[in-house]
Amino acid sequence: MTLSDLAYKARIAIQVGGAFFVAIVLVYAVIAFVFMQVGNKTPEVEPQNLNIAFANVPPVSIEQALDLDGARYTYLLNTIDNDYPVTTSAAEVFFVPTKNVTLSYTKQADAIAQEFGFDTDAVRPKRLNEGEILYEDANKRLDVDIRNFNYTFSLKSSPSLQELVEATPSADVVSLEDSWKSMAQNIFLQSQGGNDVLSGASTNVVYVSYDLSKGTYTPIDDETQPQAVRIDFFKKDDLLPIVSPYFFTSQNYVILAPLTSDATVVQAQIKTYPKLLEGAGRYPLITAEEAWKQLESHKAKVVSIADNPELPIKINNIYVAYYDPESYQQYYQPVFVFLGSDNFVAYLPAIKLQYLLK
Questions:
Q1: Which of 201, 208, 308, 189 is nearest to 244 (CA)?
Q2: Nearest to 65 by CA among 332, 346, 273
Q3: What is the chain's mean pLDDT, rounded?
Q4: pLDDT-derived band of residue 238, with 50, 70 and 90 as boundaries?
């Protein structure tokens, strides 16, 4: 073998050895990077002080969910820093007891009826079903749940109601808002559930117009003359915010007309189901990122959205709140709330899926 051949073979060996060495280094670097990532990944920590008091619970029933084709909606995360907010990892869940009809229900129901102007000697209630009765005369209607004394009252569409809503408003209606709030509060205090609603409640005043053909009250726009005022009562909680089935309005409200100091009640409702504070459970919740994925998968229930919204819908706020139902549900529990553009509001059960009944 000549020196030239030997030199050539040496160069080849050095090149092969160098390439092999580089490959070994790269493989080692990749393995080290993978282990570093695994080591740095923060494991999901189970919240402390859990108390799965009720085993698996049924998910919240979102009562006013809109009948929408969810697949047509797309979403854009538009929160602060365009990131998922940090939300509580666990929350209390409360049992809501049912109440039985008592022998004294007639006296309590009559007192509510008298508050709304019924002559209870002349107008006796009709039993609608096992738990509800109806007072009705030519001008008004009152439905009462005799288990908990929730109720819905309304004046019927009639010339007298039309006269009330078409009366000329006072020159400065805003100055009367405090007296209207007091009037609404006094009405609620006459009912068993009124104190539960009013305890720490916030109020919202909305001016509405009356549609005689539909018998409904609708919030006015800037160009419409107000005909009545709606006072909504929103419950408060020391643990989390509370949302109603409608979000923008409450199931606990009073509507007054005309817009004067002589206003009278034209519609009122109390729907409240007090929770049992003793024996509450504490359940783990999904994260905001997990909630977002369920929103994108169209599993959240939309309760408000404008007609023909611009897509994608920009989600500006995500948070956890208690859902305050309009009808009885066995457990008082949290939901994720999504607020977005075009009056978008959606709710999603917040408890981890493995703790919810299928």
A1: 201
A2: 346
A3: 89
A4: confident
Closest residue by Cα to residue 231 from 195, 202, 260? 202
pLDDT at residue 41 is higher than 90: no
Place of tokens 């004394």: 149
pLDDT for the residue numbered 7? 46
Q: DSSP states of 248-263 as a string?
A: SS-SSEEEEESSSTT-
Is 162:148 a contact under the CB 8 Å cutoff? no
Residue 15 confidence class, pLDDT cut points 50, 70, 90: low
Q: Per-residue pLDDT tens for 256-307?
A: 999 999 999 999 999 999 999 999 999 999 999 999 999 999 999 999 999 9
Query: How far is Cα 203 from Cα 191, in angstroms, rounded to an integer?
Result: 18
Cα 313 from Cα 12, distance rounded (Å): 62
CA distance 201 to 234: 5
Q: What is residue 62's predicted lDDT score, i.e. its pLDDT?
A: 97
Which helix or strand (DSSP H or E) is residue 267 part of?
Answer: strand 264-270
Residues in the chain, total: 358
- Which DSSP string corresponds to 29-86? HHHHHHHHHHHHSPPPPPPSS-B-TTSSBPPP--TT-----GGG--EEE-SGGGSPPP
Parallel, antiparallel, or unpaired: how do β-strands 132-136 and 151-155 relate? unpaired
Task: For residue 45, give both structure tokens.
Answer: 């920590």
Best CA proximity match to 165, nearest among 33, 95, 256, 44: 256
For residue 93 the two structure tokens come to 């869940």
pLDDT tens for 156-188 read: 998 889 999 999 998 889 999 999 999 999 999
